[in-house]
FecR protein domain-containing protein
Amino acid sequence: MAVTIPGFAEAKDTQKVGKITAVSGSSEVKKSGGTKQIKAFKSMAITQGDTIITGRNGKVNMDLDSDKEVIVGPNTKLVISQLIQNARAMSGKTNLSLLGGSVMVKVKKKLTGDSRFEIKTPTAIMGVMGTQFIVEYREGNSFVGVIEGTVAVSKPDGAQGPSVHANEQVHLNSSGDGVPETLILHDLPLFALEQYAEDVEQMLENHPTPDLQTLKEQLEKVRKEKQQAQGDEQEDEEQPESPVIIYEGTAPSRDRSDRGSSGGGGGSPGGGDPTPVVRPSIVSQGVFHPIPDQRTDLNIELALAGDSLKTVFYSTGERNLEEGTDYRLESGTQSGQQTIVLLKSFLQDRIGDRNSFELKLTFTSGYTLFVTVKAREVKSPQLDIKEFYNNLHVYVPNNKTFILPFTTHIQPNVTDDLIDETQVLQDGVILQRVDFPPYEWKQNDSIMIEENKLKIELGEGIPIGSLIDITVVSNTLKNKETGDVQEEEQRMQELRLEPSANPDFIEVDPINPQEIAINIMGFGFPLRELKLEFPPNDSGPGEAHVLVKGTDYEVNSDESTPSRLTLKSPLIQQLTEYGEYTLRVYLETPEEYQLKIALFRKP
């Protein structure tokens, strides 16, 4: 997995970082260069090369810049092909590839200079110049619906296609041909209709007009119709099986009379309502260990309801189980109950690698009860990716300390008495700078485990700006509570040790000056100096001033949080010139490193 937390580039294009702002339903991200799909979560960093994948009910909201929002609809696969901060254009270059599904885009400011925002499908390229629109690609055809602004469409061969303006749409065939027409609300995907309705509702609150009110009513009508249609489709696909109620003297309504039912015939005497019959049932049942040689006895407790157990038939193996050899019977925890104890010898020798099997229990009354016995869920240690990236400052507090959180308490998986726990960890944990050989552990390095955390402490720090992979080889760890072994390699991929400032673009108001708080992620390196450059003027570059701690700013930091830089209100009050000020933050790194923060006063 990659996470890049960049500072500002001085004279060249650099990769930007977007952020997920909301997630619902089944939504995953495949990070650039990775192979595994990770469950998406709020505040997750999105970088160039990442792929967003949503399921049937999934939706992801992303901010790719301060003025660009992308909403990924259900059943969609979207690749962030390009996400660049251009040194000459504040908004940079963004290129998205829609491989299937639908997205809604809001570009709130008109793009200028050589800034670019494009969405590609296999049949068309949509170029944007400040707009709000929807793109859909399914079954070889593309659709563009524009709410605000203009979208310029190009064909796959680069030839110019139609321009689609506000309140227009176009359906494009596999060759990229199509004719714009008036926007039809029914053609918009449901998630886009819902978002459009929310936007209109907000506009009505701020500037109510008859036209907006009419549009709101139209959107609500179409939204309800599409919701109903979608609900009907899901109901047809997921129609649940009706429950069976067995009555004395009546046959069951479905053909499955031997699963918790007894069969029978004839109507109820006297034509009155039938009387429910109480039958034997399962009170509780255990699960078995997924690894055969770790299985123990398993209990199935029955409520007999006045009946008696006759046989225990192993349906999967097609044979009767033998009492005393395969199972034993014990009294239940309450009167009228009985416990079947499946012996560990049967579970270890007969079940093998199966994760479930079925028993058929017959009773003296002729009643038959089927029981499905399952293996318990395997709880092998897994890296807690969401926790790591949500609290990066905790898990990478400096360039010497790397802490990997897992979903369970962990311990080394020692399989050889001749190898101690330290050796298991050193052999199984690989730290490597990308494009460099694996790191060789030194005497003053340490790898230890604290509850659910794997902690790496290095004697010498990793250079700032490095790209790091940390791999925990399969079978290195196990769940301390269940003993389940880490079966798959766990990897924290392409972690960039690059300091950052959040926020890094701030609008200031010297007329009503307020203190400004900025979080500086410096990976343990403190702030050395701050310089403020005023906007350039007709005579050349603006003046640069070294800021004074205590007068112009304060810094508060401790080991568990990023440095908190506070720009004081008297400093903000001095920013009277219109334009962009540049705040340069220098860190006490071995090689000079600076962050660049833009302070902007609007005309």
Remarks:
- Residues 385-496 form a domain with the Immunoglobulin-like fold (CATH 2.60.40.1220).
- The chain has a mean pLDDT of 82.
- The first helix runs from residue 190 to 206.
- The helical segments are 190-206, 210-237, 344-349, 385-390, 392-395, 421-428, 569-573.
